[in-house]
Amino acid sequence: MEIRTAASPKDVKNYTTERLREEFLIQGLFRSDEIKLVYSHIDRIITGTATPVSGKLQLTAGEELRADYFLQRRELGVINIGGKGEITIDGRTYEVNSMDGMYIGLGAKDISFASRDGSNPAKFYLNSTPAHRAYPTVLIKREGNAGEGVVVIKAENKVELGSLEESNHRVICKYILPGQVESCQLVMGMTSLKPGSVWNTMPCHTHDRRMEVYLYFDIPETAFVMHYMGEPAETRHIVVRNEEAVISPSWSIHAGAGSRAYTFIWGMAGENQAFNDMDAVAMKDLK
After folding, report:
1. Parent domain of 120
2. What does the pLDDT read at residue 237?
């Protein structure tokens, strides 16, 4: 497990491009038959992936967590952006298809990931945060029928925003949040831009009560996203390619503009789960 320390905004404004990428950009995700994990000291979030191709991948704590098992003191959110897959949790197997998600609560011990077809493997994206109590483990589906251990995303949690004129026509799909899937602190979802739109989260904002991680995907090899971060009056940018993630501290704006439309997963950790709790930054104040 790779460890990333927290960073002060006073220091970040002096970073070189290389240092900025080293601290905040996560590359090398979705490696075949590997679990890749990055532990950030910023709200103790773990960002990672599991890409099973030839067999099952077992999620273990590793010595970095000083825990008997991965979710001994944590909760976990998962979204599959690849082919059909399966997650087995303490003997129960869940079929997790493309764009399905899962919330796995504190105390789950035996967790493994598998693909239905190794030639089109599942790509499980993971966000994990510290937890203080156990909430039910559930499979999260965008469409279909709810049932025991299965939640379907509510219509009010599929929000269409922006416009083509402002280059930010997008659909926000909320997976883990209060009132739909309960968690201790983790909030998670996905935003898809419509063709012709390239901006996400503009006008931008900060939120002192939580941090965020973005995973960008559905980006062709020849395309990229400019991820903007930093204090509103001291902005910086990171060039992000397909299936790369960016850690965003609570003091930083977080916005992106792509060379074409793309999709991203956002995961938030902190003391406040209210989706609309954000401090807006006026366009005229950005520098």
Report:
1. 2-285
2. 96
pLDDT beneath 70: ranges in the chain: none
Q: Could you tell me if 192 and 200 are in contact, meaning their C-beta atoms sit under 8 angstroms apart?
A: no
Confirm whether residue 207 is marked as ligand binding: yes
CA atoms within 13 A on the CB side of 199: 13
pLDDT, position 262: 97
User: What gap in Å lies between CA 212 and CA 229, rounded to an integer?
Assistant: 11
In this predicted structure, what is the pLDDT of residue 95?
Answer: 97
CATH number of the domain bearing residue 233: 2.60.120.10
Q: CA–CA distance from 16 to each of 12, 20, 22, 213, 243 (Å)? A: 9, 6, 10, 21, 23
Distance from C-alpha of 181 to C-alpha of 275, rounded to nearest angstrom: 13
What's CA 287's distance to the chain center, in Å?
A: 27
Question: What pLDDT, on the 0 to 100 scale, is given for residue 136?
Answer: 97
Helix, strand, coil % over all residues of the chain, rounded to 5: 5, 45, 50
Number of domains in the chain: 1
Annotated binding residue 205: yes
Strands 138-141 and 234-240: unpaired
Which run of H or of E encompasses 225?
strand 225-231
Sequence-distant (≥ 6) Cβ neighbours of residue 206 within 8 angstroms: 232, 250, 251, 252, 253, 278, 279, 281
227 is in an annotated binding site: no
